[in-house]
Structure formats: C-alpha cells, structure tokens
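hey so i finally got around to running the thing on that chain from the lab meeting. sorry it took forever, my laptop kept dying and i had to restart like 3 times. anyway pasting the input first so we r on the same page abt which one it is
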Amino acid sequence: MDYVFGYTVAHDVSERKWQLQKNGGQFLLGKTMDTFCPIGPVIVTKDEISDPCNLTLKTKVNGVVKQNSSTQQMVHRTPALIAFVSKFFTLLPGDIILTGTPPGVGCFRNPPEYLKDGDVVECEIEGIGSIINTVRKSSQI
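ok and heres what got predicted. didnt touch it at all, straight out
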C-alpha cells in the first residue's frame, strides 16, 4: 500500500430525510451538505499503525456508546477499495476515502434514533484518536 499516506477519523454525517425520502431516491445528496464530513484532528502515518485491519471503532452520542466495532468487520479492505474506486475516477495525492461505518447506525435501530440539535457526537478509532462535534440544526434544510 505504497499509495496510502495515513489514516484519520471522519464523522460521515447523513441527513436521512434527504437520503431516504426526498430527492427521488438519490442517496448522495443526504451526505454532501456543508459541515457533513468533519475530519481529523490528526493524520497518523501508515508506519504508526501496525495493523489497520484490527482497530477498535466507536461512536458515542452524548457520552453513550452507539457503535462499537472493529476494522476487522469492515466489508472491504483498503487495497480493494482503492482498486475499485480508481476504476471510476482518478485518485490524486491528498484524496481521502471513507471506508464506511460499523453496525449501530441510528436510523436502523429499533426504534430509530436521529441526531438532534445540541447532541455531541464523538467518533474514535483506536491508535488514531477522536473527533468530537456538536450537532447544529441548519436553517437551510
């Protein structure tokens, strides 16, 4: 994986009404609004992670663990993802690929749970760190 510089944490936010109900079934719009993909706060170089396929992933909402999994559970490994997406678009130095989320997504819980204004979300990957964000309702959507 000579082409991978390192790893970071991302909070891959989704607006489920725009993904699942509005916009004629087009999934992408619900993931592409301003502020919907905070990243960081660090990049850990690949030599600092001995096994990227064996890291704990956690997401907490207001201090309550909602997702607790491992990169072992990801459907596709990084080399396979890179090979696949590079068939459709050119990857350039600095490009970031998000690899997905572990089980426990709120809209698929029973009953469903949705983020609301004021919620604090912490996304953490073992050996990399955490990103913490406060949810704010937008007047634009």
